[in-house]
Amino acid sequence: MLQVGKTDIAYLLRQGHLGNTNGQVASKPVCSGDPDGGHAVMGSVVYLPCPNGVTAIKVSKKAPHLRVLWTADVSTAGSPIIADGLVWTVGTDGAVHGLNPANGKQVASIRSAATANHFPTPSVADGLLLVPGTNQVSAFMGPAGRPPAPPAPPAT
Predict the structure, then answer these.
(1) Of 30, 52, 65, 147, which one has the fewest beta carbons inside 10 Å?
(2) Rounded to a whole number, what is the distance in angstroms from the first to the last CA of the chain?
(3) Whole-structure pTM value
């Protein structure tokens, strides 16, 4: 289990034995500031919402247990999600950014109609990328388009 607190240090804990004080498996400074929001996980990589950009951390059973893979050049305003093969995050610039999960390079950037003011997190549903704003939600067609319509019921 990986957790990052307000001190910007990631702690790797055993789920069955949380360890008390200094009982963590490993710890490592990972953000330059207070990470705000939840993490996204794909395999053994955890994507953290660091203020200086989404940061990818590789978690391993063997030492070194925690390794920083990359930090994106996009200043993060909210939690990342994983959808359609990309890591999505809302930037402090009011755009939603799609990042390559392997290297953090920006693959897509979409300007949103309204900027959210506190911990914005994108979401996906029905082939749409949904981006929260202060008083509205912007919906964008996903890269794969809308899912196909359900088949028509059989004729009777």
Answers:
(1) 147
(2) 54
(3) 0.84
